[in-house]
Design brief:
By secondary structure, the chain is an alpha/beta fold. Helices cover 42% and strands 21% of the residues. It contains 12 helices and 11 strands. The strands form 2 sheets. It has a 6-stranded mixed beta sheet, sandwiched between helices. It is globular and about 50 Å long.
């Protein structure tokens, strides 16, 4: 069977098409479209009319791509921006009319579980106590696990689109704004940071956009040129990129090799969140993977996930 999964996120709509076979899916196609559901109205828990239009156009194109790839099954998963929007039915009904597919709106705990499955598909087994950090536009998911057992997971409605719409950030960011944002992140994610210390987390596993861009900048590759299953990043490499990017303006960041144009604004708060995470936990290294929610859905569809015990704790 060929399956397609569309992850309708707050910033981008991400498509993966794969041949479903054991021990894992074989990726046939992957791509993304910039939909920016999290525009200036996200702070009102609304999806603007232009954002709905962008999303519908993108979904229609991506579903057509999946059908050209001979997909037998197409699923559309919507996350933070849609689940928190008071007017989400307008998008859901129009999407069903345009594509013939019902959008599955998932909660934060389910999102965290699927992200974990995606990372498990990529990395198999990680021996050290580890924490997955998925930095999104609408929410951030953190999953703490060791040797295939999830010890805690949580979802926080503090994604980067929400941040830039609620925190005035200068261009470039000032040291005072950097400190204030770090303090905000440490408070919002305090429970997760506490659990990371409790479980002795040593490895930070970063997935999705911000970490993909981090890897592209370190490698000097074109944005999204590589779909990486696993890349190890030292804390020194992270610190170098952090110090390189934070003093820059949006225009200057656009000129940096590896910078995804979609992330020129969002990358600064994302790096501050990552550094806050590193500074408040015993993390000693980073693993970047391009596998996340989409691949987690594929993993679950293969029924491989049935051998996993349910998470011990969640938030």
């Amino acid at each position: 069977m060929i399956a397609a999964v569309i992850d309708l996120g707050t910033n981008t709509s991400n498509l993966v098409v794969a041949l479903m076979k054991n021990p894992g899916p074989e990726i046939i196609f992957q791509g993304k479209e910039y939909v920016r559901l999290g525009d200036e109205r996200i702070s009102e828990h609304m999806i603007s009319d232009p954002a709905i239009g962008r999303a519908l156009d993108a979904l229609e194109r991506q579903v057509e791509t999946a059908r050209r790839c001979k997909a037998d099954k197409i699923r559309i998963i919507a996350t933070s921006a849609v689940r928190h929007a008071v007017n989400r039915n307008s998008l859901l009904q129009s999407a069903k009319s345009r594509t013939g597919i019902d959008i599955e709106v998932i909660d934060g705990n389910r999102e965290a579980t699927l992200i974990y499955y995606g990372v498990k598909l990529a990395l198999k087994t990680v021996q050290k106590p580890s924490a997955i950090l998925d930095i999104g536009g609408g929410s951030n998911e953190i999953i703490i696990f060791e040797n295939g057992t999830v010890n805690w997971q949580g979802s926080f409605a503090a994604g980067m689109s929400r941040i830039i719409n609620s925190f005035p950030i200068s261009n470039p960011i000032t040291p005072e704004e950097e400190e204030r944002l770090s303090e905000h992140f440490s408070q919002i994610h305090g429970t997760a940071l506490e659990h990371c210390r409790k479980f002795g987390v040593r490895t930070l596993i970063g997935c999705s956009g911000a970490f993909n861009t981090l890897a592209d900048i370190i490698d000097g590759s074109e944005p999204e040129q590589y779909f990486r299953q696993k890349k190890e990043i030292s804390l020194n490499e992270f610190e170098q990129v952090y110090r390189q990017l934070l003093p820059t303006t949006t225009l200057e960041r656009q000129q940096i090799k590896g910078m995804d144009p979609v992330r020129t604004e969002l990358i600064v708060p994302a790096l501050i969140l990552s550094k806050t995470f590193i500074d408040h936990t015993p993390v000693s290294g980073i693993i970047q993977t391009s596998y996340a929610l989409r691949e987690g859905v594929l993993y679950e569809m293969l029924n491989v996930s049935k051998d996993l015990p349910p998470p011990k704790g969640s938030s």
